[in-house]
Amino acid sequence: MNQYWIIVAILLPIIGGAFIPVLPFARKSQMFVYIEAFVLLTSGIVWALIMGGTTEVFHVVHFVHELSISFKIDGMTMVFAGLISILWPVATLYAFEYMEHEKNEKGFFMFYSMTYGVTLGIAFASDILSMYFFYELLTLVTVPLVMHTLKREAVLASRKYLYYSLGGAAFALMGIVFVIVYGTTSEFVFGGILDMVKIGEHAPLLLWIYLLAFMGFGVKAAIWPLSSWLPQAGVAPTPVTALLHAVAVVNAGAFAIIRLTYYSFGVDFLQGTWVQYVVMGFAIFTIVYGCSRAVKETHIKRRLAYSTVSNLSYIIFGVTLMTPLGLVGALTHFVFHGFMKICSFMCAGAFMHQTGKSYVYEMDGMGKRMPVVFGCFAVSAMGLMGVPGMAGFISKWNLATAAVESGNTLAYVGIAGLLLSALLTAIYMMSVVIRAFFPKKEFNPETIKNVTDPTWKMCLPLIFCAVSTVLLGLFSAPLVDLFTKVSIGLY
Amino acid sequence: MNIIMCIMVFMPIVGAFLSYMIGRKNKTGRDLFVCDLTIVEFVCSLLLVFSAGSSEKILFVIPEVCGMGLQFTVDGFRAVYAAIAAFMWMMTTLLSKEYFGHYRNRNRYYLFLLVTLGATEAIFLSADLYTTFIFFEIMSLASYVWVAQDEKVASLRAAATYLAVAVIGGLVMLMGLFLLYHQAGTLQIDLLHEACQGKNVYVAAVCLLVGFGAKAGAFPLHIWLPKAHPVAPAPASALLSGILTKTGIFGVLVISCQILMYDELWGAVILLLGVVTMFLGALLAVFSIDFKRTLACSSVSQIGFILVGVGMQGLLAEHNALAIRGTLLHMVNHSVFKLVLFMLAGVIYMNLHKLDLNEIRGFGYKKPLLAAIYLMGALGIGGIPMFSGYVSKTLLHESIVEYIHGMEAGEFISAFFSAGDMKLIEVIFLVSGGLTLAYMCKLFVAVFLEKNNDAVVQKSYEERKNYMTKCSAFALTVSAVLIPVMGILPYATMNRIADMGQSFMGHVHMEHEVHYFTWTNLKGSVISILIGAVVYFVVVRGFMMEKQADGTTKYVNRWPEKLDLEEVLYRPLLLKIVPTVGSFVAGLFDVFTDGLVVFFRKTIYRDSPRVTELEEGNEMTHALGTFLNSLEAIGNCFIWKENPRKMDFEHWFALKYSAFKENVSFIGRSLSYGLILFCLGLCATLIYLLIYTVV
Question: What pTM was estimated for this model as a whole?
Answer without folding.
Answer: 0.80
